């Protein structure tokens, strides 16, 4: 029901017997209630063309693309830390879908993404070597909850490799609008030449009255020293703990999964509460399946049996696109058949644990959910596709 009482939601969360699925649901409801309103939906539906204005090689590994509206109107405002999802039919069919963090706040009504060229990445290879000014790219509206929260507490930004992109956007936001806050920028890379946008981050931190910068290069050599101040060695949990980050801070982590796990543990050891540590990852999210015995995870794959005849369903994070099978009752069942990690609890449209960003397309519910999901999301446990859809899972 609407107009939920935050105190009653906190009371519900204090019940020890509350299942993980319901606990997650109540936690999300409380976050909405504390903000005073539900999170705003995407600023446009489906995919729309964006114009490539500039292509800038940041180093030999990373290229930035500046994107604008084809008609010249400013693109909608975004929250620092959100990501943009691209669909590239020129690369393959069905068109692959990939998400990239915005690496700055909007500049002159434009968006910037910074893409690392992965050795066997067809999409990243296209964007870093073949994309050119004047080209049009299909993009879904920016999304994501990895965003800077209001407040006055210190902010810790921890990243490794290309994981710097969303935290760099948050750093831009802090430098522009929250200069009074204490800010820690902690980054790890192999060598200076593999640290894109380093000068940009350095300039932003040093311009902050309460900025702290700690950069670690695991494979630096003596001649790298002329490139600026840094510490030699890999950024580890022990090193992060030794920095004595403030225990009342809010933290944002982005990088390889193992790195984020180590950094999270270090921050919790430093006294930072778990719910004040935010992480961003573009791999499939971990499953939340209460009551189901854990089993070894298989890589996502096409479902067994004859191909379906229904609309095309694309799981963006998992890199799987397949026709909806005739014998499946819901998108959740299809995801499970493909070993795409799933999140559910009730399987009847009640708890909203399965709420998933719907990047494009429409769905029909059977049964109808107790409460509709926010705009731009779908309850996959009781949804079937009406037409070709793209899910952020």
TrEMBL record:
<protein>
    <submittedName>
        <fullName>2Fe-2S iron-sulfur cluster-binding protein</fullName>
    </submittedName>
</protein>
<feature type="domain" description="2Fe-2S ferredoxin-type">
    <location>
        <begin position="311"/>
        <end position="393"/>
    </location>
</feature>
<dbReference type="Pfam" id="PF00175">
    <property type="entry name" value="NAD_binding_1"/>
</dbReference>
<dbReference type="InterPro" id="IPR039261">
    <property type="entry name" value="FNR_nucleotide-bd"/>
</dbReference>
<dbReference type="Pfam" id="PF00970">
    <property type="entry name" value="FAD_binding_6"/>
</dbReference>
<dbReference type="Pfam" id="PF03475">
    <property type="entry name" value="YiiM_3-alpha"/>
</dbReference>
<dbReference type="InterPro" id="IPR052353">
    <property type="entry name" value="Benzoxazolinone_Detox_Enz"/>
</dbReference>
<keyword id="KW-0411">Iron-sulfur</keyword>
<dbReference type="InterPro" id="IPR017938">
    <property type="entry name" value="Riboflavin_synthase-like_b-brl"/>
</dbReference>
<dbReference type="InterPro" id="IPR008333">
    <property type="entry name" value="Cbr1-like_FAD-bd_dom"/>
</dbReference>
<dbReference type="InterPro" id="IPR036010">
    <property type="entry name" value="2Fe-2S_ferredoxin-like_sf"/>
</dbReference>
<feature type="region of interest" description="Disordered">
    <location>
        <begin position="282"/>
        <end position="320"/>
    </location>
</feature>
<keyword id="KW-0001">2Fe-2S</keyword>
<dbReference type="InterPro" id="IPR001041">
    <property type="entry name" value="2Fe-2S_ferredoxin-type"/>
</dbReference>
<keyword id="KW-0408">Iron</keyword>
<dbReference type="InterPro" id="IPR001433">
    <property type="entry name" value="OxRdtase_FAD/NAD-bd"/>
</dbReference>
<dbReference type="InterPro" id="IPR005163">
    <property type="entry name" value="Tri_helical_YiiM-like"/>
</dbReference>
<dbReference type="InterPro" id="IPR012675">
    <property type="entry name" value="Beta-grasp_dom_sf"/>
</dbReference>
<keyword id="KW-0479">Metal-binding</keyword>
<dbReference type="InterPro" id="IPR017927">
    <property type="entry name" value="FAD-bd_FR_type"/>
</dbReference>
<dbReference type="Pfam" id="PF00111">
    <property type="entry name" value="Fer2"/>
</dbReference>
<feature type="domain" description="FAD-binding FR-type">
    <location>
        <begin position="45"/>
        <end position="149"/>
    </location>
</feature>
